[in-house]
Amino acid sequence: MELAQMQKSLQDYTKSLFLEGVLDSQFLQLQQLQDESNPDFVSQVVTLFFQDSDRILNDLSLSLDQQVVDFKKVDPHVHQLKGSSSSIGAQRVKNACVVFRSFCEQQNVEACHRCLQQVKQEYYLVKNRLETLFKLEQQIVASGGMIPAMELGF
Amino acid sequence: MEVCNCIEPQWPADELLMKYQYISDFFIAVAYFSIPLELIYFVKKSAVFPYRWVLVQFGAFIVLCGATHLINLWTFTTHSRTVALVMTTAKVLTAVVSCATALMLVHIIPDLLSVKTRELFLKNKAAELDREMGLIRTQEETGRHVRMLTHEIRSTLDRHTILKTTLVELGRTLALEECALWMPTRTGLELQLSYTLRQQHPVEYTVPIQLPVINQVFGTSRAVKISPNSPVARLRPVSGKYLLGEVVAVRVPLLHLSNFQINDWPELSTKRYALMVLMLPSDSARQWHVHELELVEVVADQVAVALSHAAILEESMRARDLLMEQNVALDIARREAETAIRARNDFLAVMNHEMRTPMHAIIALSSLLQETELTPEQRLMVETVLKSSSLLATLMNDVLDLSRLEDGSLQLELGTFNLHTLFREVLNLIKPIAVVKKLPITLNLAPDLPEFVVGDEKRLMQIILNIVGNAVKFSKQGSITVTALVTKSDNRAPPDFFVVPTGSHFYLRVKVKDLGAGINPQDIPKLFTKFAQTQSLATRSSGGSGLGLAISKRFVNLMEGNIWIESDGVGKGCTAIFDVKLGISNESKQSGIPKVPANPQHANFAGLKVLVMDENGVSRMVTKGLLVHLGCEVTTVSSSEECLRVVSHEHKVVFMDVCMPGVENYQIAIRIHEKFTKRHQRPLLVALTGNTDKSTKEKCMSFGLDGVLLKPVSLDNMRNVLSDLLEHRVLYEAM
């Protein structure tokens, strides 16, 4: 694939992520922080996010599968996930976490299970998309090109 | 013929006597034989008889006796030696047994007697127990009655029901003829018959409270038997043939909420009592039993408690109703006030527009007219018209402004302007009048007075104009000095006002001194009230609405300043001083930056040491990335303990994440304050939180944090925050 084409598809892909609400402007902030002195900032942060979130989701599944759910343990996990996802701009994950937290407060086990599914869904979605994004970027870099800066119209 | 030892009748046998003896002996023998049989039979039947051995002995004795008598039958006629032998054996045996029995009986009979006594004793005991059972049963009955009565009384909170129920139940339980309750009147000097059992509408009957019988009853908590002829017991007209039943009276304490609030009424005792009078049916021989009296006493106590509860409930319900009424009234009043304000605002808005339009027309046309060719008289007339209409326009503006100021709906229009020019303009406006009055005006501007400032130019001009105008108005001679300077906190100011110059603001102080009429120090407070003017003949002619100072004061307050007047007395002139807060503008041109304070450009934070504390790894990394991008030297920690260990005076700012619910996160701020006692060594503390509400902000302030930031932080936001923070050392705007 031609470099220009790759760059265009990367731009379109990123734009679609924003339009769908999978990512928000915080992700742009992260990209702004990436410069020559810190070339892998975004991928580092995102990798850390994936590691953290995998662990948290595991813990959440375990906690919710207990006979008697201890909401005092569940809530901090969700809070943590919410914080992480809002730090990198994973908007849908963050929103799902907000809903999750409110059901945690109500101690509604059924709803919490549903929320967990929802969160997992959104998380795998954003993970998937970001991994695709990074692959595209790597392809561009491997072809010797520059990753175009994102201009957002909104 | 053998010689026998038996006793033989030596006289010729009397055949008749013989026969009778024969028969008697026979019957005796039969009886003697049948008695043991009977004994054996009955003993076998009873099986509890303890003295079997005695019976056996007795039986043996009787049998042998019988045998002896039987054998005797054969001795009447000649008999053989065998018979005699048998007879002798029998007799010997009988003797032995009877002696043994006799001896035995000596032991047995006392036992048998004691059994009898024990039996008597047990019977007595049984009788006693029966009596006690009877007593307990009566007590239990009484207790049951009391419980039932109490339950009835306490199941209602209505005072009348309580009392009525008490009387009814007591009447029923004790089968009373009449039951009455006397309550103390309001004055406390009389007892009034309030409730009776049988009479439906009790007569309004009172007795004085100081009767000896009543004192006797009130003096003790027990039920007291009183005479049926006492005034409290005579409830019905007495017809002579009745033998009145016994009457008992008991006191019922009326409890108050607080028995300790004693108004000094010496006649009233602190405890008030009601009197309950109970009458047994007449013409019955019934007497008051102890347990009945006890029942009455217990009931009286319960009634007291129930009554006080009912009274308290009544009070609280009344209070609540009162409050609700008041609430409703307040609500209505508030709504009316709101309507009134709305109506006034509407009126003002309409009138404002309606009045200004013709006003403008008049002023504009008069000015135009002034420009044309006019004769001197015409010119004078036009000038008067112009002056009057300007005055009227000003008056209208003033009224409108003041009402808006009072509403709080007036807002300052901030802009950048040239302060020096403003003063000069004011002076130019006033100069003509001053020259006419021959009052020299001087303007002194302090050298450090900033030239370009941010504030509400129009209103500031209004204030200065008003003050200087007043000075000119009320001076007949002397000079007027206007001084403007930047004030520092050690200048003389009213004691309750402290000026703290911050970075991009300063306080402008303007002093207008005149040597004119002066003001009586007592009148100074009145100066700033609307429509009031110090009445002195000399100033009557100066006109003016009296609103000027009031409006100026409002404007000065809006600009976070203060205004006051000092005078040494009438005829000694006065000085008007005011402070207002203005912003310093960086721009040298009047381009008008709307925000205060001004935004510095790309600030450089190279090498600024900061500390980031965040439990969340991802957000920690992001914050660090932000700060690194801005050039800071960032250390990260993930817990408050680590933060305390690592923080040092080299760190200029500490960013701490306080997202987790609870107060623990804020403790770190307190500990840092404790660690760094010198203010300049302490790093600035900024909280990063997802919550932007007022309570979070207040919490942060109360824990000594210097600023709050909303997560997630954007690059520009962080940049601005850092620069503001380092400039002012305080930041509460980046929300």
From TrEMBL, chain A:
Keyword Acetylation part of the UniProt annotation: yes
Lineage: Eukaryota, Viridiplantae, Streptophyta, Embryophyta, Tracheophyta
Domain notes: Histidine-containing phosphotransfer domain (HPt) contains an active histidine that mediates the phosphotransfer.
Organism whose genome encodes this protein: Brassica carinata (Ethiopian mustard)
All residue ranges annotated as the HPt domain in the record: 38-143
Alphabetized UniProt keyword annotations: Acetylation, Cytokinin signaling pathway, Cytoplasm, Nucleus, Phosphoprotein, Two-component regulatory system
Highest taxon, organism lineage: Eukaryota
Intracellular or extracellular location(s): Cytoplasm, Cytosol; Nucleus
PANTHER family: HISTIDINE-CONTAINING PHOSPHOTRANSFER PROTEIN 1, PHOSPHORELAY INTERMEDIATE PROTEIN YPD1
Protein name, UniProt field: Histidine-containing phosphotransfer protein
Residues with Phosphohistidine modification: H79
TrEMBL record, chain B:
Keywords, ordered alphabetically: ATP-binding, Copper, Disulfide bond, Endoplasmic reticulum, Ethylene signaling pathway, Kinase, Membrane, Metal-binding, Nucleotide-binding, Phosphoprotein, Receptor, Transferase, Transmembrane, Transmembrane helix, Two-component regulatory system
Subcellular location per the Swiss-Prot or TrEMBL entry: Endoplasmic reticulum membrane
Cofactor note: Binds 1 copper ion per dimer.
Binding site for ADP: N470, A471, V472, K473, D514, K530, S545, L549
Membrane topology label: Multi-pass membrane protein
The family this protein is said to belong to: Belongs to the ethylene receptor family.
Name this polypeptide is given: Ethylene receptor
Organism whose genome encodes this protein: Brassica carinata (Ethiopian mustard)
Lineage of source species: Eukaryota, Viridiplantae, Streptophyta, Embryophyta, Tracheophyta
